[in-house]
Design a protein that fits this description.
This protein has 260 residues and is of the alpha/beta class. It folds into two domains: 59 residues, no CATH class; 191 residues, Vaccinia Virus protein VP39 (Rossmann fold, 3-Layer(aba) Sandwich). Helix content is 37%, strand content 24%. The strands form two sheets. An eight-stranded mixed sheet has the order 3-2-1-4-5-10-8-9, sandwiched between helices. The longest helix has 23 residues. The protein is globular and about 70 Å long.
Length: 260
């Protein structure tokens, strides 16, 4: 298992940071003979103009990815918001091409992010903001709030934000201040053995998140886990379960808090 995780980390670094994808490189060499064979077969029965535009990897992929944790969490929380029908929903840093797009398909959503977004998208109101700093005039601003797979990055500098080792605390406090009494906060973060994987993300002991929420008048009402095998399941949130999660290597936790 440790060797597999090491290989996955090496693959992530090579493919996303160096720009060399070993899997695609393998498929290039293994797929080229098939491409040539298919091209010659097609050319024998087609007399029109042909240009080369090889697509060598699609033979090995499924029709769509449905086990990715982003995909699963985005749909899960978007359905929750659809059912709740809040007056004003605000999102902090979640994927625009995933969760935000799902919500924007059926309602207006306000999006805050430390990075600019220049594209104008129907139903999405964008505001650039650094949540390591308090947002003046925004206290008790909304009755529904989301931050999916984003808090773990605060203060690590990955997205142009300043280096602040406890940045997730500043971010959480400032987000909680946006929420009205009785409002709902949807938060997802990596859970497991507490650590920083610099400068990618943090992994949290769940009890740290719940204590931080309690300190900001937020009460946990639901916890859902997205496991690395693609399974999504409801979880207890007692001390024993938190201790178990804190010893795991990784899970994605989706917390739902209510402002007291």
């Amino acid at each position: 298992m440790k060797f597999k995780r090491l290989l996955l980390r090496i693959y992530f670094f090579l493919s996303t940071q160096v720009g060399i994808d070993p899997v695609k490189l393998f498929y290039f060499f293994s797929s080229t003979p098939r491409y040539i064979r298919d091209f010659l077969c097609f050319k024998r029965e087609y007399s029109g103009q042909i240009k080369f535009q090889p697509c060598l990897h699609d033979w090995y992929e499924e029709g769509g990815t449905t086990r990715d944790e982003y995909f699963l969490q985005d749909l899960f929380v978007a359905r929750k918001i659809f059912k709740a029908a809040p007056d004003r929903h605000v999102d902090i840093g979640s994927r625009v091409d995933g969760f935000v797009a799902h919500v924007a398909s059926f309602r207006k959503i306000e999006v805050f992010d430390v990075r600019p977004i220049s594209t104008q998208i129907p139903n999405i109101v964008f505001k650039q903001a650094d949540f390591l700093k308090p947002l003046g005039g925004k206290k008790d601003y909304c009755d529904s709030l989301s931050c999916l797979h984003a808090l773990e990055h605060f203060g690590l500098g990955r997205y142009g934000d300043p280096i602040v080792p406890d940045g997730f605390i500043h971010g959480f406090v400032n987000m909680a201040a946006l929420l009205k009494t009785g409002g709902t906060f949807y938060l997802s973060v990596p859970l497991g053995i507490s650590r920083v994987e610099f400068n990618a993300n943090r992994v949290f002991d769940p009890s740290v998140i719940v204590k931080l929420a309690k300190d900001n008048l937020l009460e946990l009402s639901e916890l859902t886990l997205v496991e690395q095998n693609g399974k999504i399941k409801s979880s207890a949130f007692d001390k024993a379960q938190f201790s178990k999660l804190a010893r795991k290597q990784y899970s994605l936790g989706i917390f739902i808090f209510v402002k007291l």
